[in-house]
Every structure is written in structure tokens, then in C-alpha cells.
Design goal:
single chain
């Protein structure tokens, strides 16, 4: 709630809404880390075709997803 109020005030004065920008960057990083953790749990060592998706669950509540195809890369001789 306070973040929304702060962002509203920041929007009035113009410029980048840094509160939302920081939250988005943190959410994307957490989603990426979660994807890498799942990749390692299943024995993969890389992810290809990585994508991000966001969904609004309810007013003011968003989820950030990061997904791709987990693969095992091998060195070629």
C-alpha cells in the first residue's frame, strides 16, 4: 500500500517510477533464480528459450513467471 502511494506521488512529479521499477527487477531476478533452481533439481545444466510472463492476479497483485526448456549440454569432441 505504501509503495503504491509513494509511486503515485512520484508519478505526479514525472519521471521513472523507481519503486515499481525496482520491484519489477527484483521479481524478475527471483523468478529467474527459481527457474535455475528447478533446472538443477532435475539434472539439467542449461535452459533454452527462456521467457518471462506476468499476470495480474487481482488489483495490485502481479505474478512474474520465468520459464524455458531445461536441457543437458554435452561437450562435443
Amino acid at each position: 500500500m505504501f509503495g503504491t502511494i509513494g509511486a503515485g506521488i512520484q508519478k505526479i512529479f514525472g519521471g521513472n517510477i523507481s519503486l515499481f521499477t525496482e520491484l519489477c527487477e527484483k521479481s524478475r531476478a527471483e523468478a529467474f533464480d527459481m527457474m535455475v533452481e528447478h533446472e538443477q533439481q532435475i539434472g539439467a545444466n542449461a535452459v533454452i528459450g527462456v521467457r518471462y510472463d506476468t499476470n495480474e492476479l487481482m488489483s495490485g497483485v502481479m505474478e512474474v513467471l520465468c520459464y524455458g526448456t531445461a536441457v543437458v549440454l554435452e561437450k562435443s569432441v
